[in-house]
Amino acid sequence: MTSAQFPLPVPNLDNQEFFDKCREHRLVLRRCRDCALFSHPPRPNCLNCASDNLEWVESKGRGVVYTFTITRQPVSRAFEGRLPWAVVDVKLEEGVHLISNLVDCDPEEIEIGMAVEVVFEEVNAEITLPKFKRVS
Amino acid sequence: MESLKDQAAIVGIGETVYTRDSGRSELSMAVEAAKTAIADAGLEPKDIDGIVKFTADSTPQGELAACLGIPYLRYYGELGPLGGAACGLVIQAAMAVSRGLANNVVIYRSVNGRSGARYGSGVVTTRRGEGNAAFTEPYGLLVPGQSSALRARRHMHEFGTTERHYGAVALAFRKHACLNPRAIMYGRPITMEDYLNAKMFFDPLRIFDCALEADGANAFVVTSAERASDIKHRPVYIMGSAQALPAASGGSGRSWDDSGASWLAPELFGGAGVTPKDIDVIGFYDHFSTVIITKLEDYGFCQRGEGGPFVEEGRIELGGEIPVNTSGGHLSEAYLQGMNQIIEVVRQLRGDSHAQVENAELGLVDSGDGAGALILRR
To answer: Which ipTM was obtained for this model?
Structure first.
């Protein structure tokens, strides 16, 4: 599953570090130094206590499929030639959710609760995307 | 502090025909709907001194005013970003007319949603990978139906909700549309077999689970309760109102279950002084069939997780316990971003619906995923 034909991330001042670390094949998350809450997508403040005292913490990259959907009709031109297309919501062990795709997995085999771990897809020189693969 | 309860009323409604290819400008349809609503209220365009708009609408308030022959507006406003606006705009209008900022406010929505830019294709909502879309769009999460599908799939997993439950919603609204000659799907009944055999769009959502993109315009007139007593039709009073904008919802940080409806329901019912049991008819914003099940839970018509079984046995159909979307809703009448449901509930409370709920006194309408909601009374 390559993401080349979909809109690519346009990093901004709040999430540049996330994408920089992806290029190093490291998945990082925002964690609050005051209340320890992990959050994603990266924002300048904590979703719980509004603190701006946040750190970047490397995720273990492990989680489970929380939910998923399989697109089967070319509802947007971007899907032409690439259906069925599965989007998954992965709940990481750190408690945050990431929208992503599973690599090396037939969409029909995806199940809620399936254990997954992060892998990295290098789309171009600037953008590497975190994706997930099944762990047995 | 004085509440908005019963301070304002919807006194005029207007709509164009709903089509798949209007061949008209959004401005011209907006003017037609507004003129119809103003005449329905027994007013003249010169009586209108306020107009509020959907941020997403291409028609500026000033252009609509110009085409209605109104020289200037004392009050104007807007609400975004997309489908969640209608009830919030009614609240803006109610505040304006009840505080003397305006006498009569028009709310409108005009969209070539089928022949023009189509929501379902993602062209309206795409953010090209910017902001939080940097974490969704690169993975092919591009159109609203996919997000509803993610939420629906989780609901099925947690509570045993089935495809047939979603089908029961689609069939109920189609049945209502078949009573309503204005509905795009008038005369086109479907069976559960048709539903289950239909094209899967975003698994588990089929074509029949999705809002019917349409061309058309809706408008209504809000005035103060004081003025409403002089109006031609039976006024429909805004008895309860609430808005909710959940922070960081959906795939952007908090729970998929964090709908506006779950936040605003206590204020909505508390402010009106009624409970879900008192509601006679509902007009839910049904961009997808699946949200009807979670909304019935969030507003307290059933317990959390019981929305699937609740929609069975005709419970949300005309003649059932609580009829929902009696004109066919977005699924089978037309997708006018929550405006046509409000118009239909006004009609119900006037006693003028094609699918009339006997002696309907109280109606509930909402916008988006519960971005705003109203309790209306006759």
So the answer is: 0.97
